[in-house]
Amino acid sequence: MSGEMENLNQYATRKTTVEGFIDTSLFTSNVSVLLSITRSPNGVDTGEEIAEMVLVSICMLLQVALMGIFVYQGSKNIEKLGNKPTEDISTSSTRSESAKRRRAWEIEDEIEKERSEEDRNLDKTNTAATILTAALVLFEIVILGLLSENQA
User: Which family would the database say this protein is a member of (predicted)?
Assistant: First the structure.
């Protein structure tokens, strides 16, 4: 398993970088949509165009927040997170199975209590990134629906 752990931080950094690139490309697409709405010959005069502008602007704000989260996550070395020594309970032949399970739960509880603030912050940023991404997907679906409706 140590071979897998050697490249864990490199993998996470690449993954975060790719997420940032995808978010940047979506941001540029939204800028293009915003420009096409504002540069239309009639200007922004209908309720649908105003709704599109508001939704695109909200998406762009969420994307900037996501970019900040990705930069924060990319700056962390995940190999150093959550590395607490644990007792090997599988080698003890004198303990009963229920005692082994109980000890495993106790060890998991101890590890969870000892997690550093940085571990918890990274968990929070992962949760925030997931929620923001879900919100972005919903907004983008609504925007695409409005745009296709206007083009028809």
Answer: Belongs to the ninjurin family.
